[in-house]
Amino acid sequence: MKKYVVVAAYWSVCLAFTAEANSCLDAENIVQLDLQYEQALQSGDVAFLDKLLAPAFYWVHNLASMKENKDQLIARVQKPEEQAHARRSHDVSQHRLDNTVVLQGLSSVDKLNPDGKTLRTYRYQFMRTYVEQKGECKLLAVQTMKVWSSEEGL
Fold first, then answer.
1. Residue 15: what are its φ and ψ, rounded to 5°?
2. What is the pLDDT of residues 12-34, one digit of tens each?
3. Which pLDDT does position 19 carry in this prediction?
4. What digits encode the pLDDT tens for the residues 94-116?
5. How far apart are CA 139 and CA 55, in angstroms?
6. What are the backbone dihedrals phi and psi of residue 69, each rounded to the nearest 5 degrees, phi first?
7. Rounded distance, CA 139 to CA 38, Å?
8. Is 40 exposed, middle or buried (0-12, 13-18, 19+ CB in 10 A)?
9. How far apart (Å, rounded) are the C-alpha atoms in residues 112 and 125?
10. Which residues pair with 51 in a beta bridge?
11. Can you tell me the distance from the alpha carbon of 69 to that of 83, in angstroms, rounded to the nearest whole number?
12. Can you name the residues that pair with 144 across neighbouring β-strands?
C-alpha cells in the first residue's frame, strides 16, 4: 500500500509540473500571446479579440480619459480610422502569481496624421493582466498611460 501511495504522489508531482510547463502563462507563451494581441488591435482582428478578452475585460486609458469594456473595444477596432499603422511593445517585464500574469512595459503606436501621409508616434506605459482559466489565457484588464508623442509630420 505504501508503494502505491509513493507512486501516486510521484505521478501527481509529474502531472502538476507538466501542466505548469505547458501553461499559456509561461514566459515565452505569454509574450507571444501579447504580440498577437497588439497585432489584433492593429488589424482589427475581431475574432481573435473576442476569444482572447475575458467577458469582464476592462481597459482604462490615459488619465481615465476613456474606459472600455470588451464590446466597446471590439466595436472601436473595427473602424479603419482607429487602426494604427504600426504597434510594438518593448521593455516588457512579467509578474506572475498562480494563474495570473501582469505584463508591464511600453507600447509604441504609429498613427497617420490628418494629412494621410505622415506618421506620429505615441508611446504608452501599459499594464496588462492575463488570467489562465480552464487552460486558456484571457486578457482581463489593461491600463495605459501616454508618456510621450512625436512631433507631427514624421
1. -65, -40
2. 444 444 444 589 999 999 999 99
3. 45
4. 999 999 999 999 999 999 888 88
5. 9
6. -100, -175
7. 12
8. buried
9. 21
10. none
11. 18
12. 126
Looking at the DSSP assignment, which residues form a beta bridge with residue 96?
101
Residues 6+ apart with CB under 8 A from 141: 57, 58, 59, 60, 127, 128, 129
Grid coordinates standing for 26? Answer: 509561461
For 32-57, the pLDDT digits (tens) are 999 999 999 999 999 999 999 999 99
Identity of residue 67: K
Query: What is residue 15's predicted lDDT score, i.e. its pLDDT?
Result: 45
Alpha carbons 152 and 76: distance in angstroms, whole number: 23
Alpha carbons 117 and 80: distance in angstroms, whole number: 15
Backbone angles phi, psi at 72, to 5 degrees: -65, -40
What is the tens place of the pLDDT at every residue in 113-126? 888 899 999 999 99
